[in-house]
Amino acid sequence: MKFIPKALSLAALLAATSSAYAATEISFWHSMEGTLGERVSEIVEGFNKSQSDYKVTATYKGNYGESMNAGIAAYRAGQAPDIIQVFEVGTATMMYSKGAIKPIQEMSEEAGNPIDPAKFVPGIAGYYSEASGKLASMPFNSSTPVFYYNKDLFAKAGLDVNKPPKTYQEIREAAKKLKAAGVECGYTTSWPSWVLVENFAALHNIPYASKNNGFAGLDARIDLTQDAFVKNFELLNEMSKEGTFTYAGRGDAGNALFSSGKCAMFTGSSGSRGSFVKNAKFEFGIDRLPYNSEIVDKPQNSVIGGASLWVFNKKSAETYKGITAFFHYLAGTDVAAKWHQDTGYVPVVKAAYEKTKESGFYEKNPGTDVPFLQLNVETTDASRGVRLGFLPQIRDIQEGEMEKIFSQKVSVKDSLAEMNKRDNELLARFENSNK
């Protein structure tokens, strides 16, 4: 009879010991699906296998907008994940969510394992930093738009496959030859507002908004009625009428037109490369974003897209230690280099770019260094990027108006004026709600 209590005590002791050494669970919500989702799973699995103190569980929560909304709702319900991936246009919203977010550099310093912002590409670290210069979120899948072209269709149309167009004017001429050769679609783009408005402004060194594009204050306002915006949209509208430019729709809808082989030229995220390598049945090239030669002789720099990783507040000290360890793993040279090479996202860590270059990857895969080269340029106040509240909603307004332009329902000038009016109404609301 005395054996039973001893057995029970032993069981209790084993349970307690097991509990004491159980890995701290860390939840990670993201928006990477398909090939990109597979890469995220590989990274998480690699971290979990590299140590036994923490276990990260990655969960796909829909596209960027859906995931961000789910995270906000979960926070309000007291059920926020530990880490959430948020697209770059949600940066201002997250930064002004006082009390909801734990800035990652502060978190890592408190955990005794500081994350050094100096190891990241300056333009990327700067975008995700507070006014103090400290990182608010973890740079992860930073992208920038690039120019893709279908070499098979170029050859069919008698175009030089090694000399892609550099300007919108050259794209127009190439598209005419492609159309004459029976190609269904000459040029299209994904993320129209990001490419044709935000990156267009940076590339041509034109202010997108006042207050240094929103970095210097909540009272920033957009101005799309400037001559350069009018000139480029009028050019695109002429191309739309003649069938050399196809408006594919919002978000990444244009990706399918390119990967299917219907469209010969495409501007879209550098992060789409991995998917194109896997799914496209043709040889394609990558080059720098086109510029309008009637506006500038030499382009400035592109701006980032993609997303960063944010940490919710009011988690345990042990959870923050685990998140810090995970972020250091993500920023490791080998992990960051592989993520860059596998996906096409920019190497956010400078050492990852150097490692990739030394390996000969860029020589074997021409054009894959374009995203880094487009971003690794000294920026101006106009080309640093855009940090505005309600930017996802602002993009929706702009792309809704673009649909009217390219379906010939409204003039370019009237549409840009309407964008301005409605965009700035949103910015005024954001300013008033965050004073």
| Share of helix, binned | 40-55%
In the predicted model, the low-confidence regions spanning at least 5 consecutive residues are 1-5
- SSE pattern, N- to C-terminal: HEHEHEHHHEEHHEHHHHEHEEHHHHHHH
N-to-C span:
71 Å
Helix/sheet category: alpha/beta
Radius of gyration: 24 Å
Count of β-strands: 9
Return the average pLDDT rounded to an integer.
93
Beta-strand content: 5-15%
Question: What can you see in these coordinates?
Answer:
This protein is of the alpha/beta class and 435 residues long. 49% of the residues lie in helices and 12% in strands. It has helices at 3-20, 34-50, 64-76, 91-95, 104-110, 122-127, 151-156, 168-180, 192-203, 210-213, 227-242, 254-259, 273-279, 317-330, 333-343, 350-358, 361-364, 370-375, 391-406, 412-433, and strands at residues 24-30, 54-60, 83-87, 138-143, 145-150, 185-189, 263-269, 284-287, 305-311. β1 (24-30), α2 (34-50) and β2 form a beta-alpha-beta unit. The longest helix is centred in the last third of the chain and has 22 residues, at 412-433. It is globular.
